[in-house]
Recover the amino acids of this structure.
């Protein structure tokens, strides 16, 4: 596969970080089409070659739809059991977290605390010194918790500061209308110009009735 410069940098930084005795904590962000999934898949392959066992986590709803492991309840005993099973095979765990925007600060902190309590690697370091790589697009859906009024964003947690952030900015997917995609990218960043509004008004067909469940 031909990697973009951004993707190549992520792969290099993660591989260097895996050599550290304290592991690595890396956040990979990027809009749709920048190749996050391809990088994640490649990291799983690299992990296997380095005698690492990739543990893929995702918010419970996402995991249920994709077959991935749901984000743990952060029970240190349950996590210790899972780590012991991996270590019995002569492997080391590496955590890969999907849909980081939907992970709350509370959930991430609880995972770090649970891994520290296992005391297997370095309980004085975030996540007990285990390598944790998160993937996500913060322009998408955030964490949902009906019990609290304010959003418990992951970046508000202290443990988030232990992550090195790497952004994927180069598009990988081929698009028949790169100009239209560029406008959508500006909209997701809150950068809407009068010229863009004019273009959308030109392609808007007022004669067509919107579906009843459309967002207005």
């Amino acid at each position: 596969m031909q990697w973009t410069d951004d993707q190549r940098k992520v792969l290099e930084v993660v591989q260097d970080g895996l050599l550290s005795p304290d592991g690595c904590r890396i956040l990979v962000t990027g809009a749709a089409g920048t190749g996050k999934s391809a990088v994640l898949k490649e990291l799983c392959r690299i992990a296997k070659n380095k005698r690492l066992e990739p543990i893929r986590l995702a918010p419970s709803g996402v995991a249920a739809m994709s077959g991935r492991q749901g984000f743990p309840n952060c029970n240190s005993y349950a996590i210790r059991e899972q780590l012991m099973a991996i270590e019995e095979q002569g492997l080391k765990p590496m955590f890969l977290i999907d849909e980081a925007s939907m992970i709350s600060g509370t959930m991430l902190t609880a995972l770090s605390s649970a891994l520290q309590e296992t005391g297997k690697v370095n309980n004085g370091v975030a996540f007990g010194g285990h390598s944790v790589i998160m993937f996500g697009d913060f322009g998408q859906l955030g964490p949902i918790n009906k019990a609290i009024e304010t959003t418990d964003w992951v970046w508000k947690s202290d443990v988030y500061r232990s992550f090195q952030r790497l952004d994927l900015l180069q598009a990988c997917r081929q698009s028949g209308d790169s100009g239209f995609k560029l406008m959508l990218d500006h909209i997701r960043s809150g950068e809407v110009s009068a010229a863009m509004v004019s273009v959308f008004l030109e392609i808007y067909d007022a004669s067509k009735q919107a579906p009843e469940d459309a967002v207005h």
Notes: Residues 5-18 form the longest helix (14 residues). The helical segments are 5-18, 36-49, 60-66, 76-87, 105-118, 178-188, 194-203. The chain has seven helices and six strands.
